[in-house]
Amino acid sequence: MNIDINDIKIKIKLLQSGNILAQATVILFDIWEEHAWKVLKSNIIHPVFQEKIWIQAPSYKQFGKWREIVYINNRTLYEKVQEKIYDVYHMAKAKEKGEESTAKN
Predict the structure, then answer these.
(1) Rounded distance, CA 20 to CA 7, Å?
(2) Does residue 75 carry a pLDDT above 60?
(3) Residue 93: in which H helix or E strand, if any?
(4) Spatial CB neighbours of 82, under 8 Å, sequence gap ≥ 6
(5) What is this structure's pTM?
(6) What gap in Å lies between CA 70 and CA 87, rounded to an integer?
(7) What is the pLDDT of residues 3-31, one digit of tens each?
(8) N or C end of the chain: smaller count of CB under 10 Å?
């Protein structure tokens, strides 16, 4: 089965919780939801997004190492999912800033 990036939707919840900027839900085919994707602050500039940001799949810590719960074998699709999360995150931030500036006026 092939999954096209258009089969995937993203929901974003903006946060200001330490290093966590947002949480994302990845929705496949409008029936399967993967919660706990994160948009995080980073000390390193992301090679694609060119800002200090990191997108993390759902994961848990075991013996001092982080292990992903969700793993996408197709590297190209994984990168497209990250790009889609990044785009939705930036749209949500822009909308929030627009609402803030409207509220101040």
Answers:
(1) 26
(2) yes
(3) helix 75-104
(4) 48, 55
(5) 0.88
(6) 20
(7) 899 999 999 999 988 899 999 999 999 99
(8) N
